[in-house]
Specification:
Blueprint (H helix, E strand, L loop, with lengths): L1 E2 L6 E2 L11 H24 L24 H25 L1
The structure holds zinc ion (2 copies).
The site of one zinc ion (ZN) has 8 residues, from helix 2.
Length: 96
């Protein structure tokens, strides 16, 4: 018996190097690995580049920032989105 590397279920391996209990576990793990690698290359591409916050505040973003906004602008972006939504609701109301 072996323990699946993904779902922690005991299984009987068909081949000695089998580490996942099922094909779906193996597929999921493969997909995750690809996604992880993609994320890492995306971040590595950012090294040496200056990425400024899209919020226009001039803040330098870290390579780990995926949103494009610094934490301050991220908050205000959310409130802007909320405001726009409310505004849209207001316009829709007006047109009725
Ligand atoms: Zn499994
Ligand atoms: Zn910002």
């Amino acid at each position: 018996m072996k323990l699946c590397s993904r779902c922690d279920t005991y299984f009987t391996p068909k081949v000695s190097y089998q580490i996942y209990c099922s094909e779906s576990c193996r597929d999921d793990a493969t997909k995750e690995k690809i996604a992880e690698r993609y994320q890492v290359t995306r971040r590595q591409k950012r090294i040496g580049k200056v990425r400024k916050c899209l919020g226009g505040c001039g803040f330098d973003l870290s390579i780990y920032n995926d949103s494009g906004f610094c934490s301050n602008c991220n908050i205000s972006k959310k409130s802007v989105d909320k405001m726009l939504k409310e505004l849209k609701g207001f316009i829709d109301y007006e047109q009725d």
